[in-house]
From TrEMBL:
Residues 99-185 form the YdbS-like PH domain. It comes from Jiella avicenniae. This is PH domain-containing protein. It comes from the Bacteria. The chain crosses the membrane at residues 37-57, 77-98. Residues 199-226 are annotated as: Disordered. Keywords: Membrane, Transmembrane, Transmembrane helix. The lineage of its organism: Bacteria, Pseudomonadati, Pseudomonadota, Alphaproteobacteria, Hyphomicrobiales. Pfam families: bPH_2.
Length: 226
């Protein structure tokens, strides 16, 4: 099995050195940036755009019925409390999700621990990672998706919000909203190459995306073959 998915009530987010087998060392640990998580996984901008479109529609409808722009904007202003509550809940959920998440890279595996209500752990041996990639945002954060064998893959909904978007049939785990993603990607690439017999220093190619649109594609990084 390429990856193991476990769920525990008492799991702790941080992997400690004491939990690892003898000879295995921690190379890197981080938790996602909560603001980037809100923008990406929880689609904060999309929610804001929906409220804006609905508000403009209310302005137009009220103006058509009453002939008054003032009445239209006053009517649209009634949406502000709902907008505030919606945005606040998304931001709170993103903050709690980020705080409950830790990504841990060791010399042998990549461990993802996450989950607010029901903590879960995904344990991915580096030797079973087929491919890694990186997508960078303009603020330095980024996403690192991993391609693993189909056998033993968790489902998309088990991985979410740490699943690569739109990969429903063949879910791929993704380190999402990683701070200093370029450095993290370099460490992951080095660990993959070392675990699979390749040269140290294999770094994923990266493209910087617009922080607002996030339109840049994923640039692959295949570790040297054994």
């Amino acid at each position: 099995m390429s990856a193991q998915m476990d769920e525990f009530d008492d799991i702790k987010p941080v992997v400690s050195q004491d939990e690892l087998p003898k000879g295995e060392t921690i190379l890197w640990q981080a938790r996602p940036d909560w603001w980037r998580l809100a923008l990406g996984a929880y689609r904060l901008k999309l929610v804001g755009a929906w409220f804006l479109a609905f508000a403009l529609w209310k302005v137009g409808v009220t103006h058509h019925d009453t002939g008054s722009w003032a009445a239209g904007f006053a009517d649209a202003a009634t949406l502000l409390p709902a907008l505030g509550v919606g945005v606040g809940l998304i931001m709170l959920l993103a903050f709690l999700t980020a705080r409950a998440t830790r990504f841990t890279l060791t010399s042998r595996r990549l461990v993802m621990r996450y989950g607010v209500a029901l903590p879960a752990q995904l344990n991915i041996p580096l030797a079973h990672v087929d491919h890694a990639a990186v997508r960078l945002n303009a603020d330095g954060t980024g996403d690192i998706p991993l391609t693993i064998p189909r056998n033993g893959r968790p489902s998309y909904f088990q991985l979410w919000p740490y699943a690569r978007p739109w990969k429903f049939g063949a879910a791929e785990p993704m380190l999402r909203a990683v701070p200093d993603a370029a450095e993290a990607a370099r460490l992951v690439a080095d660990a993959l190459a070392a675990s699979q017999g390749g040269k140290r220093g294999a770094v994923p190619a990266a493209r910087t995306s617009d922080a607002d649109t996030g339109r840049a594609g994923f640039a692959g990084a295949q570790p040297a073959a054994t």
